[in-house]
Amino acid sequence: MSAFRPTALIVSGLSLLLVTGCAGSGLEQSLEADPQLQERPVFGDDIPETNTAATTDSDVTPPPDRSASVPTTGNAQTTGGTGALRIAQLREVPDDLRPFVQDWLALGLVEATQPAKVSDPDVQAGFEPNQPITRSEFAQWLLAANNAFYQDVPAQRIRPATASASPIFQDVPTSHPHFTAIQGLAEAGIIPSAKTGNATAVTFRPDAPLTRETLVLWKAPLDSRTTLPTATTEAVTAAWGFQDAAAIEPLALRAVLADHQIGDFSNIRRAFGYTTLFQPQQSVTQAEAAAAIWRFGNQTEGISAQDLLRQTSSPSGSPTSGQSTNSL
Q: 39: how many CB neighbours lie within 10 A of its CB?
């Protein structure tokens, strides 16, 4: 052990001299730790996790939902809260009705038909696609849509009544928010009343849900622009194959038969799809009502909401209001 100690001291001294002599030289630099390797763990759980803050589910921007987009043509703009509201509304619409409702909303007619001042807050509830539409609401929509589609064809427009007109219906006074539309349609003979020979039609029932047969009864004359055909239950059954044709009121039978003559542009086909049960007293939803008034015209000539939007976005390359594009 005594012989080993001098030897160990000599080796230690030589090592100290070697390191001291290499100070500042390339060898010293080569012996320094790689800064890229400093504090870098080598194995397993010590590897730091990648920063996932930008890739968590809550932060990833989802792809745009094209199925419920809202056009920005026409009067409806999809900026801010209005756009988000429209997208949410469209997501509630059945797939087959969505294209028609989307065009209807893009026209901005829903907002245009809302009274500026009403005492009943429900009247200004806005568009609720799956809720029933009332008779007074549809009357307002129908007149507004007809006049918008035929804005350049005065002969096809319906004149709203004046606020001073004598009410035709006992339950629709001049103070009613939709008086001018209801009265105007009645005076034009579109809505049956005492003026059209229906002596018992003294009330309108403005807050009652619109029924399927009433929708067709009011809309068909604005498509054909002619006298409705004479119809029987047997004729409607033969044309449509409805199992419940006998439940349709006689006045509406004529409109239902006239609607069949429009072919693929039929309001019944567009709003309710293929069916062997018409269910004439079934309530109409707002989405179905929008689909029905998406187009006006007969089988060979008409105009749709899509046509009107094209005119608005490209006036020079679009047809004149009232001309047919015959497209669904």
A: 6
Q: How many domains does the chain have?
A: 1
- Residue by residue, pLDDT tens for the chain (328 residues) are 444 444 444 444 444 433 444 444 444 444 444 444 444 443 344 434 444 344 333 333 333 333 333 333 333 333 334 566 667 778 889 999 999 999 988 998 876 555 544 444 444 347 899 999 999 999 999 999 999 999 999 999 999 999 999 999 999 999 999 999 999 999 999 999 999 999 889 999 999 999 999 999 999 999 999 999 999 999 999 999 999 999 999 999 999 999 999 999 999 999 999 999 999 999 999 999 999 999 999 999 999 999 999 987 765 544 444 555 565 5
Distance CA 288, CA 132 (A): 9
Note the Cα 32 to chain centre separation in Å: 69
* Identity of the residue numbered 161: A
Is residue 20 in a domain? no
Is 33 part of a structural domain of the chain? Answer: no
Rg (CA), the chain: 37
Q: Quick one: DSSP state of residue 245?
A: G
Give CA–CA dist 328/321, Å, rounded.
17
Residue 67, φ and ψ in degrees, nearest 5: -70, -15
Domain contains 95 = yes
**Nearest in space to 108 (alpha carbons), one of 146, 138, 148:** 148
Q: Are 280 and 247 in contact (CB under 8 A)?
A: yes
Q: Is residue 226 part of a domain?
A: yes
Q: What is the dihedral of CA 291, 295, 297, 301, to 10 degrees?
A: -130
- The H or E element spanning position 303 is strand 302-304
Query: What is the total residue count of the chain?
Result: 328
CA distance 289 to 281: 15
pTM for this model (two decimals):
0.70
